[in-house]
Structures are given as structure tokens and as C-alpha cells.
Amino acid sequence: MRLLTAVSLLLLLLILRIPVSGQPETATLGVVNNASYVAPGFPAGDVARGSLVAIFGTGLGPAQITPAPAYPLQKSLAGTSVQVRSGGVSYAAVPLYTSATQVGAILPSVLPEGPAEIRVTYQGANSDLAPIQVAAARPGLFTIDQRGTGPLAAFLYEPNGRAAGWSNVHLSARPGDLVSIWATGLGPITTPDNEIPPVGNLPVDVEVLVGGVPSPSVQYKGRSPGFAGIDQINFTVPEGVSGCYVPVTVLVDGVAGSYGTLSVYSQGNDCADAHSYARQEMAEVRGPLIFGSGNLELMRLHLFAPFLPSEGLVIDRIRGFFREQADQRFLYAWPPVPAAPPLGTCAMYHFKMNTELELLPVDFDRLRPMEAGLEMTVTGPGGTKTLPFVYRQGYQGFLWEYGNGDSQPYLAPGEYTLRNGSGSPDVGAFQASIRVREMIRWTNREQIQVVDRNQPLTVTWTGGDPEAEAAVIMGVGSRLEESQRVTFVCTADPAAGTFTIPAHVTASLPPAPAVATPQFPPGVLLVGTVSRPDQNRFTAAKVKFGFTYSLALTGSAVEIR
Q: What is the DSSP code string of 405-446?
């Protein structure tokens, strides 16, 4: 068993936690897993006994962040204490850090499973009560972006003669390498939660899935040495896995927690991926380089639902956004096509909903928006459309939707050209091309009226171009009261014509009706294609990486139960 030194792990925790910047203040208390940040009400949003949670609100503690000074941890920190009430009994949680808007606390390992309420007291003033759902285990994985998304905080141990270090696209893991990742929520311990935890495996069944493939060896699955509430998992990367953003999840007693990604590439340190970046591009981007990136997307959505006409509803839309990136930690936080995992894999994403038709999660809060020009034109078989530039949103709009006056949808198969005229000082001028292909046919759509979250789900289709596209399957569940959405995304070779979504993936969706209610939007299942990003690229004066792609999805409202 090989473990990191306390000094190395302390450095990791200083980078990742205490507290997360960018989290909005709120007058309503909210409690989430300190690693995953999944909202309450989703299956992965339960919090585990003995886990570290993040509690958000106002007036929770002192203005400056105050970490616990030493072990044993105390029940009160800088005037902040945390109480959990379950079954009429009150339990003291252990604060690990405190501030005015965020408190990190370790839930008692002796806390019963089931519904409970949590309250923060600061200098005698009580916060609101916040409901939580306590589970025996629910692992949340720590990620580099500090929000539970994208690349994991993963350490490689001197693999195959290479230097040990934190994994990224320049130090990719290879099959057979030993990797450590960090989590919270593997389960309770038998010793006091406020003391340095014992080193040793917890009595739970832990399975690490890398691109859906189980690790052949999980060598450690317990508290991270020297850190209360933090878990460490050491595992071997399985064979047959490759990609710059391979999804990784941890199952405890068969139940999955959150997802992150790991760069896996057997040919060298600098990752290469047909659905991401070329190896040469990876090697070029090192250090504190400031560069601009841009994505231009055409999307067709053909939606079927009980409340729509029998022929369904067609929506054609366009999106273009540009961001400047300077922080090395967030380089390549997402692949060019956001949320598209390598072929044959599935990933799960949790993100906030907004008023736009957002199907894929993109978190650009940490990247500076770039002005791209007053307007962009798109020209194709159906003529020319013009879209204005909107600050922070880029170019977004509907090219066609039911009832807009046009007799036919806009996006027919063919070539489309996108231009931003004379451009802007921020981006420069660009001219880009996107090819729209024939939509694939989802052949068992009418047979899938209900998604059983406890069973695998097989979808079938015909059509698609394996040389230029990937088949993509998505499931979407939402909760209106938290303004949150969860989406799983699976990709496959279009030529396969079939893909089976594993049960641990469908289980991550919340229950949802086929017809919207005041509390819940309908569940949605989508099947279609996404173009490969290496098929179309564009450049501009200030844009180092410019990608164009098209999405063509058939969606069906389904009951999720």
C-alpha cells in the first residue's frame, strides 16, 4: 500500500478547498458533499455518515476563513458550531473550517441513515434548518476545478519509470499505473470523527470504474492518512481504456457517487484523443499561457412528448462562445465538445439550469468572456441568418422553432459557413465551416416509455457516419426547486447501432414524470450524433483553439422511476 505524505496531501487540500471561490451567497441554508457539490434531491446528492459537507448561507461564521488549528478537532470553531437532528436526537458535527458564507463540517459517523436536519449556530445566532438525506455511503470525488466536475485530483506513482506527479493531459496515466484519488463519503468510521483517522480499508465494497471498465485492483479504500473526513482510493488503471477525459466514478456497495475524468494514454505523457486535441497541441500548451478558445455549434433537436403533436417538435439553434484562459489548473478543463466522453463510455454531469436550451454543461465562470464582434452570420442551404453578440453569452439563438413564421426548419443536410464580419480586437475575424449530416433514426424510441433506474437500458438506431460522427445518448433529469439538472452522456460508434446504458448510470437520474408537473420537468432521453471535433477547425487572430461541431438529437419525454 503506497500513500502520499501528509505534506503532499496538505498541499492538495490547500489548492482544492477552504472554501470554493465563486459559490454564490444565499440567505437559504444549503448542504452538499464537499467534493461533488451535487444538489440535494438527486441520488448522488445524499450525504454520507462521516463525510465532509459544505454548508452555505450567510452569517455562518467570521468574515475571514478560519480552519481548525489542530487535532483533536473541537465541536466549536471561531464561534461556529453545527448540529444535526435525526429521529428527535441532536448530534454535533465537527467544523473543519468556517467563514461567513461557507462552513465545512464532518457529519457524525454515528448519525442514522435517513432524513435529517442541519443547523449552524454562530455566536449564539441560529441559522435556518436545512433538510439533508443521510446515506451509509455516497462518494463525492475531488476535482481540480473545485466544483466536482472535470479532471480529478489524481496522483500517479512513478509509473513505468516516469516521474510521479499530479495527473493532467501532460502526465497521462497508462493502463497498469497506480493512481490515487481523493473523495469524501466512503462511509463511517468506528473511532471519533474529530481525531486523526486510522489508516486502513473501510469495510465496504469499493469498485472504481475507469471508462466503465472496473479497475483490476483497488489497493486502498479508507481515510486519507492525517485528514479527518477525507477518503483516499488507490487503484490500478485497467487495460483497454484511452482518452484525455475518461470518466471515472466510484461505486460503494454497488451505488455510484459523482464523476470526474482522468487522462489515460498508453503512447506517452501528452494525451491525444480524436475527440479532443492532437498530441502536438497538447505539448504546445504548457505553463501560464494565455490563449483564446472558441466553440461554434449547430444543433437540431426533434422532440417527442405526450403534450406535443404526433409528428413532434423541431428546434434548430446555434451557439458560439469565446473565452480566454490563463490559469494552468484549468487548462483543458473540458474537451472541445463539452461533456462528450470517449467512445463507449458514459459520464454524469450536474449543473445549474438557466433560461436557455442547455443540454450540455459548460462552466465558464472562471474564464474571461471574449468579445467576438457585433454579429455573426450563418449561411447554408436555407439561406442566411444573422445573430447578435450578447456579452457573456456569445452568439446564441434559434434558427427555427415551431411558430416562428418560417414554413420549414432551417438546418437541412449540407455545408454551413459562419462569419463574424470584421471581427473584434478581442477575437479577430473568423470564417468557419460546419457540415450537417442526415439525422440517425432512433429505432426503439416508441418502445421506451419508462426508464427503470435500477436496470440497464438499451437503445438502438440506424445511420450515422463513423468517420465523422459519434453516436450520443443522453438522459436528463431536473429539479425545479433547486434549479439543477443532471445529465448522463454516453457515446458509441455509430456503426454499432446499439448501446446499453449501465444501471449505475440510469440510477443517477432522479424520478421524473413523462408530463411536466409544477415540481418536476419531464424526464428526457435523447439519441443522436455529434460531429468529431477533428473534422472541423477554425482560427482567428486571438483564438488558438477553434472548434466547430454539429449536434442532431431526437428527444423523447419519458417517465423515470
A: S-SS-S--SEEEEEE-TT--TTT---EEEEEE-PPPEETTTT
